[in-house]
TrEMBL record:
Name under which the protein is recorded: Ferredoxin
Cofactor(s) the protein needs: FAD
Keywords carried by this UniProt record: FAD, Flavoprotein, Oxidoreductase
Name of one Pfam family that matches: Reductase_C
Molecular function terms from GO: oxidoreductase activity, acting on NAD(P)H
GO cellular component terms, semicolon-separated: cytoplasm
Domain FAD/NAD(P)-binding: 9-307
Metal-binding as UniProt keyword: no
Domain Reductase C-terminal: 326-420
Organism: Catellatospora chokoriensis
Flavoprotein is among the record's keywords: yes
Length: 423
């Protein structure tokens, strides 16, 4: 079969899916490309949903991966508002809602993730909101800017919860964050950085209720008015924003018989247990040769880079997806970038270049390094210090390759970051 006759199907009109389609055309693929997505919106980047768009700083269109006409220009069949209901590996077909079927030569699953919801009495009351798509962000922004400003309760102290809290405070809303953790972001960043983010939010007027969960919600005429915590405390709430995590959208893969373990399992070339099916983005648990483990990363950079890599892999190119994990956040005056991977048990301590203290409600200018017992850098975070990502990535790559750094030089701002490794 000639390349012109081949059909590549991408399930998920997401950032990852759009980047994969872009890579196929950029690499010279001349066959048919179908990009299928459940949302009616053209593929877009999701960070603005809890950042610039929610804060009213950026228009909707700024987050589009490409304008709508680009897909037609590239001869990419953009099928929006459509849902793939089944994948049949044995016949290499996909079935859409309405029983329409397409045969594929290669298939990419870029189905992303699904918001975790609360299952407690009253959780269906009006005013309890989740954030995953543009309509969610638009509705949340309208609620945050209502007069009088609502009493906001945020459930969850991860990235989404804290970004929503910061946006709500920017609109002048009183905000309380309820968290099962004992500090915000502790499960991601550890105690040292959790203390920094807690101090920043408290300095900006956020109240926290840690090691607590919501037992139920109270309503008046169907609209949320309060939350009862599991310790018996009742909190007033006109608006509840829930950010308790997401899960990979693996249902199609599971029904198709693909290997699934906290995501669709792929090798370093983003190939699943079926040689004709690939996966990338939030849904994929990919073998990362740099880290030496399977990793599922729920961040923008992984969707962007993973989509491009998947497109190349579908064409038979040699791909080894050894990305350094990366994510960023914007909260109040804090801008932050993080690279590397330092989960619980992966590091021994955190050291700082600069003072991490929050003073007068202002975020510091500081770099944090996550070090192992033998002083290898496995993760780094720059806060309000810019143009250092290349150096920090190099330190992390060296750390995972076995090269330690000198802690005294890491913490000395007069020493160039490139000169901190032990040669």
């Amino acid at each position: 079969m000639s390349a012109d006759e081949q059909v590549f199907v991408i399930v998920g009109a997401s950032l990852a899916g759009a980047r994969a389609a872009e890579a196929l055309r950029a690499e010279g693929f001349t066959g048919r490309v179908l990009l299928i997505g459940q949302e009616d919106e053209v593929p877009y980047e999701r960070p603005p949903l809890s950042k610039g768009f929610l804060q009213g700083k950026n228009p909707r269109e700024k987050a589009y991966v490409h304008p709508r006409e680009w897909y037609a220009e590239q001869d990419i069949e953009l099928m929006l508002g459509r849902r793939v209901v089944a994948v049949h590996p044995e016949s290499r077909t996909v079935t859409l809602d309405g029983d329409e079927q397409f045969t594929y030569d290669k298939l990419l699953l870029a189905t992303g993730s699904i918001v975790r919801t609360l299952d407690v009495p009253g959780a269906d009351a009006e005013g309890i909101r989740y954030l995953r798509a543009y309509p969610d962000s638009e509705a949340l922004r309208q609620a945050l800017t209502a007069d009088p400003r609502p009493q906001v309760l945020v459930v969850g102290s991860g990235w989404i919860g804290l970004e929503i809290a910061a946006a709500a405070r920017g609109y002048g809303c009183p905000v309380t964050v309820v968290s099962s953790e004992r500090a915000p972001l502790r499960h991601v960043l550890g105690d040292e950085l959790a203390a920094l983010f807690r101090a920043l939010h408290e300095a900006n007027g956020v109240e926290f209720r840690f090691e607590a969960g919501v037992r139920s919600f109270g309503d008046l005429d169907g609209a949320v008015r309060s939350a009862l915590l599991d310790d018996g405390t009742e909190l007033a709430a006109d608006l509840v924003a829930v950010g308790v995590g997401i899960r990979p959208a693996t249902e199609l893969a599971e029904r198709a018989g693909l290997a699934v373990d906290n995501g669709v399992v792929t090798d370093a070339g983003l190939r699943t247990s079926d040689p004709h099916i690939y996966a990338c983005g939030d849904v994929a648990s990919t073998l990362n040769p740099l880290l030496g483990r399977h990793l599922r990363t729920e961040h923008w950079a992984n969707a962007r880079a993973g989509g491009k890599a998947a497109g190349k892999a579908m064409l038979g190119q040699e791909v080894s997806y050894a990305q350094v994990p990366y994510f960023f956040t914007d909260q109040y005056d804090l801008g932050m970038e993080y690279c590397g991977w330092a989960g619980p048990g992966d590091y021994a301590r955190v050291v700082f270049r600069g003072d991490p203290a929050v003073r007068d409600g202002k975020a510091p200018e500081v770099i944090a390094f996550w070090l192992t017992d033998d002083n290898r850098v496995v993760a780094a975070m720059n806060i309000n210090i810019w143009d250092v990502q290349d150096d920090l990535n190099a330190l992390v790559k060296a750390g995972f390759a076995g090269t330690p750094a000198n802690p005294a030089r890491l913490t000395d701002p007069t020493v160039p970051l490139a000169d901190t490794l032990v040669r």
